[in-house]
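During the second year of the project, the team shifted from modelling isolated chains to modelling whole assemblies. The rationale, set out in the original proposal, was that interfaces cannot be judged from single-chain predictions alone. As a representative example for this report, we include one of the complexes processed in the last quarter. Its constituent sequences, exactly as entered into the pipeline, are reproduced here:
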Amino acid sequence: MINGSEKLIDRNILVYDLILQLGIENKRYAIECNGEIIPKSEIKNRTINEGDKFEIVGAVGGG
Amino acid sequence: MKLSEQLGVGEENDIFKIGTRVFNSRLLVGTGKYKNFVETKEAIQNSGAEIVTVAIRRTNIGQNQDEPNLLEYLPASEFTYLPNTAGCFNSEDAIRTLRLARELLDGHNLVKLEVLGDKDTLYPNVIETVEAAKILVKEGFEVMVYTSDDPIIARMLEDIGCVAIMPLASLIGSGMGILNPWNLDIIIKNANVPVIVDAGVGTASDAAIAMELGCDGVLMNTAIAEAQNPIKMARAMKKAIEAGREAFLSGRMNKKLYKGSPSSPTSGLIK
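Output from the structure prediction step:
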């Protein structure tokens, strides 16, 4: 699950590969997996497991 | 030395410090509700604001990857971001949002905490706010906190370690102005950290009144963004904040109830 939507991805890929697939590697974002933040320094070390729930956020206009 | 410098009321001595950061402008602005990012940037530049609030939301996945980004229009080299927790109705969501904001903004720790209690009025839930503030301060955040105009809650939030207390003037986005200057006065007189009116300002005089009361700053979004001409209103707000601040520092004349006092000499009148 990514941001509330189901997404099929290859087995055993890294979180970094997911970021590349989504095309957001050059954007400002923060990513959370199952409620825990994955620091940017960690995304190349973390493998995605079946059923992982990701939240990927950015900054938008607000008051 | 100029007289203004001797009295210590010159602008050069009027330091606006929030937590560990020092600012020149006492106007803080939101970045929501504008037509587009070009208008957002132009309005904010005209307001002279240095601190801009931003919201944290899910990134669009798989669509419009080339869509412009707010942070590209308002670069960190020119503005201090103040990520907020708008839309959070409990302390857990607010804490989670600000942890994500810190990761998103490379360790940036100055944040605006707001926990709402009602979807219609957007009135703050001060109990959840206090709980969230305790945890965020422990985690090293510099917390600027949106709250009601209750002086006791304001003092509790200061005691917890919040770096700025931000009471509402009236409901968020209502433009109803300053409804309870007396409570704001109590909060200001008791606070040892900046007091910033957040929410409810509708037009320039509201901002000036807040500053004349002795507020350290004003945070607004809708009053500028929903003006017919946001750019012009942004300029008006800049002037109102500066005028209100100088009026406060000047020490206004005493009010003389029911008694006029002529400004011209009463002697030497022709007979």
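The mean pLDDT of chain B is 93. The CA atoms of residues 75 and 177 of chain B lie 31 Å apart.
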